[in-house]
UniProtKB/TrEMBL annotation:
One Pfam family this sequence matches: GUB_WAK_bind
GO CC annotation: membrane
Residue stretches making up the Wall-associated receptor kinase galacturonan-binding domain: 29-87
Cleaved signal peptide residues: 1-22
Swiss-Prot/TrEMBL keywords: Signal
Localization terms from the record: Membrane
Keyword S-adenosyl-L-methionine among UniProt keywords: no
PANTHER family with a match to the protein in the record: WALL-ASSOCIATED RECEPTOR KINASE CARBOXY-TERMINAL PROTEIN-RELATED, WALL-ASSOCIATED RECEPTOR KINASE GALACTURONAN-BINDING PROTEIN
Any one GO molecular-function label of the UniProt entry: polysaccharide binding
Name of the protein this chain belongs to: Wall-associated receptor kinase galacturonan-binding domain-containing protein
Organism classification: Eukaryota, Viridiplantae, Streptophyta, Embryophyta, Tracheophyta
C-alpha cells in the first residue's frame, strides 16, 4: 500500500506543483539585438514584456529600431538602471551637420503610449528655421520667446558649431528683430510633441550632456534623444512573477498582465496552482515524465521492501 502512496504523492507533485524552476528564464522573454540586451519591460516578441512597450522595438540586421508615430529611430543604448533609452536618427542635426527640409522625425508618441515614454527633462530640443507663424512663437512678443537653455545647453552655444558656418552667413542668434531666431532651444515638457510639421520648423537637433557637472561646449554634447521610460501599473506583479521563475508578459488580446511559466500562463505567478483550464495545455511529455517518476518510485518502494 505504501508504494502506491509514494507513487500518488510523486504524481501529485509532478502535476500540481508548477514547473517554474525547471523552465524559468530558459523559456523567457529576454533577447538580444546586436550587443543590446532586450529585457522587461521591453521585448521583441508579442506577448512578452509590458504592454505599454508593445510594437515598439524591432531588431533589423542586428540594429535595434524604435518605432513611434513620428518615425523610426536607432536605439544606441538601453539603461535599465536609470530607465532610459538613447535614440538617434539620421536626419537630426548635430554639431557637424545641419539638416533642413523637414526630413527629421522630431519626437511624437502615440497618445496611449505617452505615460510610458517621455524625453528626459535634461534633454534639449533645438528647433531650426521655424517660421514666424509657428505656434512656438504665438502669444509671445519681442524678446520674450519660449526659447531657453535646457540643462545648460542652448542655441547660443549651438551656433558656434562648425555646421552653422556651412549653411549660410545670416545668424539671427537670439536677437528677435526682423524675424524669429534660426534656432530655438526648448524642453519637451514645454511643447509636448516635437512635430516639425505642426511647429512649422525645417529641422531640429536634440542633445544631452553626459558630463552635467562640467562646463562643456556643443562639440562635446551628445546628440540624440534621451527618453525616460516609466512602467505604469503594478510592479509587484512582475517582481513576483520573476521571483518564481516566470517571464513577465501580457495577453495579446486584452493586454492584461500575464506571468509566463513555460508550459502555462498565470495571472499571478508561477507558484500558484494552475487552474483546470491550464491543465489542458499539459503536453504528452509532461505526462510521460510523471508516469516515469511513478514507475521509478514504485520500483524504489519494492526495493526498499515497502
Ligand atoms: C555596441 O556596439 C556599438 C557598435 O556597434 C558600440 O558603439 C557600442 O559602444 C557597443 N555598446 C556596448 C554597451 O558594448
Ligand atoms: C502565454 O501567453 C503568451 C502571450 O499572450 C502566448 O503567446 C502563449 O501562447 C501563451 N502560452 C500558453 C501555454 O497559453
Ligand atoms: C504632425 O502635425 C501634422 C499637422 O498638424 C499632422 O497632420 C501629423 O499627423 C502630425 N504628425 C504626427 C506624427 O503626429
Ligand atoms: C499588485 O499585485 C499583487 C499581486 O499580483 C497584489 O497582491 C497587490 O495587491 C497589487 N497591488 C496593487 C497596488 O494593486
Amino acid at each position: 500500500m505504501a508504494y502506491l502512496l509514494i507513487a500518488f504523492v510523486s504524481f501529485v507533485f509532478q502535476f500540481l506543483v508548477p514547473k517554474a524552476y525547471s523552465y524559468g528564464h530558459a523559456h523567457g522573454c529576454r533577447s538580444y539585438c546586436g550587443n543590446l540586451t532586450i529585457d522587461y519591460p521591453f521585448a521583441l516578441q508579442p506577448g512578452c514584456g509590458h504592454q505599454g512597450y508593445r510594437d515598439l522595438l524591432y531588431c533589423i540586421n542586428n540594429v535595434l529600431m524604435f518605432h513611434i508615430s513620428s518615425g523610426s529611430y536607432r536605439v544606441l543604448d538601453i539603461d535599465y538602471a536609470y530607465r532610459s533609452l538613447t535614440l538617434d536618427e539620421p536626419h537630426m542635426s548635430t554639431c557637424t551637420s545641419i539638416m533642413l527640409g523637414k526630413r527629421g522625425n522630431g519626437f511624437v508618441v502615440e497618445r496611449w503610449r505617452e505615460p510610458y515614454l517621455t524625453p528626459m527633462t535634461d534633454n534639449v530640443f533645438m528647433l531650426l528655421h521655424c517660421k514666424a507663424e509657428s505656434p512656438l512663437f504665438q502669444g509671445f512678443s519681442g524678446k520674450h520667446l519660449p526659447c531657453r537653455n535646457v540643462a545648460g545647453m542652448g542655441c547660443d552655444d549651438y551656433y558656434s558649431c562648425p555646421a552653422w558656418s556651412l549653411i549660410g552667413p545670416q545668424r539671427a542668434g537670439s536677437v528677435y528683430g526682423s524675424g524669429p531666431p534660426e534656432c530655438c532651444a526648448i524642453a519637451y515638457e514645454a511643447i509636448k510633441d516635437v512635430n516639425l510639421t505642426r511647429l512649422g520648423c525645417q529641422g531640429y537637433s536634440s542633445a544631452y550632456n553626459l558630463a552635467p557637472l562640467r562646463l562643456t561646449g556643443p562639440d562635446e554634447w551628445s546628440y540624440g534623444i534621451r527618453v525616460k521610460y516609466s512602467v505604469q501599473g503594478n510592479e509587484t506583479f512582475c517582481k513576483a512573477c520573476e521571483a518564481t521563475g516566470g517571464s513577465c508578459g501580457y495577453d495579446v488580446n486584452d493586454f492584461s498582465s500575464l506571468c509566463m511559466c513555460g508550459s502555462w500562463n498565470s495571472t499571478s505567478n508561477c507558484d500558484s496552482v494552475p487552474s483546470t483550464s491550464h491543465r489542458r495545455t499539459w503536453s504528452f511529455m509532461d505526462a510521460l515524465t510523471g508516469f516515469s517518476i511513478c514507475i521509478v518510485n514504485w520500483e524504489l518502494a519494492i526495493k526498499l521492501g515497502l
